[in-house]
Amino acid sequence: MAGSSLAAYASRPWLASYPDGVPAEIDMPTGSLVDLIDHSVSEFGATVALQFFGRRITYTQLGERISSAAEALRRLGVKAGDRVALVLPNCPQLVVAFYAVLRLGAIVVEHNPLYTATELEQQFADHGAGVAVVWNKAAEKVANLPDPVRPAAILSVDLISEMPVHTRLALRLPLAKSRSARAQLTTEATLTGTDRWDRLVHGPTIDPAHVRPSIDDVAVLQYTSGTTGAPKGAILTHGNLVANAAQGRAWVPGLQPGKETIYAVLPLFHAYGLTLCLTYAMSIGATLVLFPRFDVDLVLDAMRRTPATFLPGVPPIYERLVVGAARRSIKLTGIRYSLSGAMSLPAATIKIWEEVTGGLLVEGYGLTETSPVALGNPMGPARRPGTVGIPFPSTEIRVVDPDDPASDRPVGVAGELLIRGPQVFSGYWNRPAETAAALLPGGWLRSGDIVTMSADGFVTVVDRIKELIITGGFNVAPTEVEEQLMEHPDVVAAAVVGVPSRSGEDVMAAVVLRDGALFDSEALREFCRRRLTAYKVPKRIVRVDELPRSLIGKVLRRQVRSTIMAVLQANAASSENPPSARAEDGA
């Protein structure tokens, strides 16, 4: 390592920006996630733990359900170290199943219920779960997995069964709107070879003497693309996840145990939602309001019943809630803290959100491999919009040469971010080569992100290493080009990717325009030329109605690339037509 620059990092200059009450180090938990939920059940028994479409479940009731579900799973043969797949949207059954699996010392494997059969097959083949708890609308995909991938037991979950009686009755009305809403939530079909979850989880509770997991045991396999390559299972231990929950508690000391309401608008099967809502919220005895998907009106209806005090999310969620609340004359005051992640948080979003709520909105940073939160902006005046903040307590970072991670970069010079802390994962499931590439000696995780760090420790993300575009031997950061396109008054969203060419890659862009704007690709390229070096200017710009995004709002660059290439191929096939008559792109 470069001695002089390493000494600067070792001094942890970011500590000067910690708000009062935030410690440099957390007291490391000694218990597992099972101990975490047991503590909240004991401490906050009468407090509402979960709310789902208005139906309330207290911590005492939650504890009883977890114990009964654990016994049901034990009778199915689930034992310590076994993998149990959860294929569920946000619902009370997911929370119960999550902690019930962990109570047995087994391993939770989270899946997106909207995955295709092919995606599910790849992941089930990798982790080998023998039991799956599945949303009934996704059960057919799991039931039809080929042998030996198909799990031996499939437990089907009906979301409607956990709704209040009046809601269930309303969904049974012979009205088109009711039928449509019901069809989105459940299916009437009963699949051969599956059993109903609710038939199994209301029986006897597990023997208190049954073996419990330790803090070093594996708790969750969370599938991710990681820093490179195809999706693989990140191994998160109980220690990783309880540490990250403890770091979150330390970061927001203003939250009061047993008195907060946290909205689960993020999917709990994603690492961000899992920690912020499923473990962190439960660790402070908060009321967790569950939404099976993000819907502005559902969230605003809940604000009238049980206003949120803390809202983890992504920028589009905050933007849409502000517009929706104004339309319906609903106040968002009372949301004291909001943490945004997964993508860049625009300054304009911060401004309008804080004006409307009177609370704070700050940006954080994390990876599935860091359980997931590693950095955050201070919840106070020291926050710095445009950055992802500073390291969490008990977390260290370095900025290094991506080609030589033993060499630290000077302050202010871009390099790859390395992270070390108790929340850093222990590797990828059954992938020793990928694990060795991601985890360096000394416990340092390669993030795969190019960042700069200021002298006082604030980090700004430049781009993902794997998303850098190499054109004519030069590196182009897509984010830099996107930011310039977004400065154009007609552009409301932009995504930039590299498309293979004779020079390596060509810079290409897809843009969404404001209503009524005319698409002029050459004018947009000229706008970029005034702001960017020539090799960074998009060679082609395509207009799209919307950008493809993941469930948490992150732009799916692979799909953007496919869209652009399809447009180019279509235009090449009909080259006799002028550009204005073809798909909207330009050179």
CATH topology of the domain at 33-41 and 55-213: Rossmann fold
CA radius of gyration: 24 Å
Q: What shape does the CA trace take?
A: globular
Distance between the terminal alpha carbons, to the nearest Å?
45 Å
CATH class of the domain at 33-41 and 55-213: Alpha Beta
Unreliable stretches (pLDDT < 50, length at least 5) are 1-9, 576-584
What is the CATH architecture assignment of the domain at 33-41 and 55-213?
3-Layer(aba) Sandwich
DSSP, total strands: 28
Estimate the mean pLDDT confidence.
Answer: 91
Strand content: 15-25%
Helix/strand structural class? alpha/beta
The largest beta-sheet arranges its strands as 7-6-5-3-4-8-9
The major sheet is characterized as: 7 strands, mixed
Q: Give the name of the CATH superfamily of the domain at 33-41 and 55-213.
A: ANL, N-terminal domain
Number of helices: 18
Structure description:
Helices cover 32% and strands 24% of the residues. The protein is α/β, with parallel strands linked by helices. Among the domains are: 33-41 and 55-213, Rossmann fold; 468-586, ANL, C-terminal domain (GMP Synthetase, Chain A, domain 3, 2-Layer Sandwich). The strands form six sheets. Strands 7-6-5-3-4-8-9 form a seven-stranded mixed β-sheet, sandwiched between helices. Strands 17, 18, 19, 20, 21 and 22 form a six-stranded antiparallel β-sheet that branches. β14 (360-366) and β15 (373-376) form a beta hairpin. α10 (238-251) packs across α11. The longest helix has 17 residues, at 59-75. It is globular, with a radius of gyration of 24 Å. It starts with a helix and ends with a strand. Residues 480-554 form the AMP-binding enzyme C-terminal domain. InterPro entries: AMP-bd_C (IPR025110), AMP-bd_C_sf (IPR045851), AMP-binding_CS (IPR020845), AMP-dep_synth/lig_dom (IPR000873), ANL_N_sf (IPR042099), ATP-dep_AMP-bd_enzyme (IPR050237). It comes from Lacisediminihabitans profunda.
